[in-house]
Amino acid sequence: MSAGSPNFVKRFCMISICDVKKKYKTGRKSFYALDGVSLEIEDNEFIAITGKSGSGKSTLLNMIGTLDSLTSGSIFVDGEDISKFSGRKIAAYRNKTVGFVFQSFYLEPGYTVYDNVELPLILAGRSGRKNRPLVLAALESVGLSKKVKERAHDLSGGEQQRVAIARAIVNNPSYILADEPCGNLDSANSENIMRILADLHASGKTVIMVTHDPEDAMRAQRVVTMSDGHVIRDEKFVTEDGQEAPPYAELFPGNPFLAG
Ligand code: ADP
Ligand code: MG
To answer: Residue 159 pLDDT more than 60?
Structure first.
């Protein structure tokens, strides 16, 4: 990444999803939204989870993020079973280990861009002037350093999603969990978001992105396809001579917001 962008520190860790099931009840009927999912995710992978609507993609991502509880199975992150986390441990995990990006941004609309991005730092107990360089670096990496004082609701959808990404990375998490990050955006803005995710991957992050868009899924190095709560395919892209494909950001260098 170019000068001025955040200097992310690479941390070694891994996700191990073991026979995870999630049962939902609607009325008297119950069914498994996840029906025995096992998956190993290496450090610094860029992985796309794809599949039809209702196949369990968001449920799986929410489990990795501890936003939802498991019916059975376990998820190890860094060797710790996060499904056993509670209280302060869950709060710390959500705040520092993972960074979330959602389809509908979930910004505080009346807050400024700066205040939205600073929020995770404040929740982590950090306040004051020391936050400023962190917030500005996160905003610079998504090309929004000139918009710090604007209110979130005055920004375009593409800009709002970039603020949401800055908020997700401000605490330097190891994992970026993105659920249909381009779902509400036009193709030009989607391209911007995909490039930012590819750059984050290149800077050492593990990126796990849920998408139903095959073009977006192609940006990852690995595509996991789900159907009816099962993983039905798990593919890694390779080059013609069988080598693991280089990250997208290496093939197409340059964050459009940092160029020039
Ligand atoms: P996807 O993200 O692949 O579209 P989801 O993971 O959101 O799918 O949902 C998987 C299945 O679980 C769907 O059939 C959905 O309707 C169901 N589901 C998701 N959340 C709940 C819930 N809170 N209560 C009942 N059913 C749910
Ligand atoms: Mg979903």
So the answer is: yes
Structure tokens at 36: 């025995």
Which residues are CB-neighbours of 38 under 8 A, at least 6 positions away?
Answer: 17, 18, 19, 20, 231
Residue 255 has pLDDT above 70, yes or no: no
Distance 55 CA to ligand 1 centre (A): 8
Q: How many CA atoms lie within 13 A of 37 on its CB side?
A: 36
Q: Give the pLDDT of residue 149.
A: 97
27-55 per-position pLDDT tens digit: 999 999 999 999 999 999 999 999 999 99
Mean pLDDT for the stretch of residues 108-132: 94
**Domain coordinates of the chain in residue numbers?**
15-251
**How far apart are the C-alpha atoms of 245 and 121, rounded to whole Å?**
35
Classify domain 15-251 by CATH architecture.
Answer: 3-Layer(aba) Sandwich (3.40)
Residue 26 CB–ligand 1 contact under 6 Å = yes
* Average pLDDT over every residue of 1-22: 68
Proportion of the chain in helix, strand, coil states, percent, rounded to 5: 35, 25, 40
Task: Compute, in angstroms, the gap from residue 56 CA to the centroid of ligand 2.
Answer: 7
Cα 72 from Cα 83, distance rounded (Å)? 9
